[in-house]
Amino acid sequence: MKNLKINKTNSLHARFLLLVVFISLILTSISCNNNEVNNQTKNKINNMNNEMNNNSVLVNKTDSEWNAQLTKDQYYVLRKKGTERPFTSKWENNYDGGIYSCVGCGNELFKSESKFDAGCGWPSFFEALDSTKIKTEIDKTLGMQRVEIMCAKCGGHLGHVFDDGPKPTGLRYCVNGVALNFLKK
Ligand SMILES: [Zn+2]
Fold it and tell me: Which residue range is the domain that position 151 belongs to?
């Protein structure tokens, strides 16, 4: 009787261990898949980064020239890498058809077709108008590692790009609305 009890307990332990191994395998598989997606997106951003950094900035102005040309808020975001308060941009809920351009130099950056509601409080796009419009740089401020996006023509800070966007790119260009002009078409 005692032996039977021990065997029964051992059998329960064995089943429990099998269950744990099975769950671990599933979790590992899910986590590997995520890593694969994240790495793919990171490679995409890195490739884009290398491509973009080969382009030099075409519009060069002094700090005081930018200060005179831009409003206080535009200057703070574009030239001092500031961030506008979330949910304050006039473009956040704008879904008219048209083109968004850099407020500093007029460089056309995003099409309205790539705009989506990310719910984050800033105008968001899943792709740039084309790959020459925006340059990127790794931003390690605020204890985070983010990918900064800048206008490729004047070097003005626009915001950041993240890898949690919708299809087809999986990217989310999170842009300060104050850095953008909109031309309705
Ligand atoms: Zn610009």
Answer: 1-185
